Amino acid sequence: MQAPSAVVMIRPHHFTPNPATAADNAFQVDVPADDSRLLAAEAYREVTAASVALADAGITVHLFEDEDTTTPDSVFPNNWFSTHSGGHVAIYPMHSPSRRTERRSDVIELLKHDYRVQDVIDYSGLEYDDVFLEGTGAMVLDHASRIAYAARSNRADPIALERFCTNFGYEPMVFDAADSDAVRIYHTNVLMCIATDFALIGAELLTDERRRQQVLDRIAAPGREIITLREDQVRNFAGNAIELRGSAGRVLALSSRAYRSLDPAQIGTIEQYARLVPLDVPTIELAGGSVRCMLAGIHLDRR
């Protein structure tokens, strides 16, 4: 339930860090405009290599091309849609107008064609009221315990979160999170990853001590082992990982940069439950997201 065996990926032809999203994304890096053609080529190569590595691990990868010159962040599809057991799909309201054209009908049609889709609930109309919820970037979902964890931000409005949780049967668990410079964490999924039998979380970044303990207790309640991440590891995207179900068991997909930031003891703990699959995506990480952001998991039954 927690670890999907199929994902959607978008291979961009015109990738670049998006200036329109930089204001509240401390993980994003400014790059010279002159480097845009080289960056686009490298991002294309990184997505291609990542999709091959995941397929080699037994993951079904639905790879879509994006040749649009106006969608620099399209490589991160998990922000605009999510899928759920029982045949449910959600489409989300995006904070930046520059990201709203990433939503694609062909992706939804592929899901309907290959999987059992009962309904599609579209929240994108909330954008007109400046209400935003950027999918499984803004939320980290515990599918087994039916809890939606969300760090407060411009991209996770409590109104939209409440609507999603009511429609999809999750309990919202909201908290405040910020780095040591008091900069708010922009997306919950850079802070934490919930797998079947373990979780990665930058617990020290949850600013309220009482709420922090409540979150840790709820994550651990089903018997999960909690692996606490330091702030430097969070900055290196160690929390931006996703558990998937491959042909030989569960794997944890994360970036090579994230993998290098982990301590041997942390790696040893993860390897008790899942095989680590590091993916080399340094160019894409310039945009402020990493492997988790690149993979929209498919929690639907095949036709």
Automatic annotation (TrEMBL):
* Aminoacyl-tRNA synthetase keyword on record: no
Name this polypeptide is given: Amidinotransferase
Assigned keywords, A-Z:
Transferase
| GO MF annotation list | transferase activity
Under the heading Pfam families, the entry gives: DDAH_eukar
Keyword Cytoplasm carried by entry: no
Record-linked InterPro entries: Amdntrnsf_FN0238 (IPR014541)
Per the record, the domain of life is: Bacteria
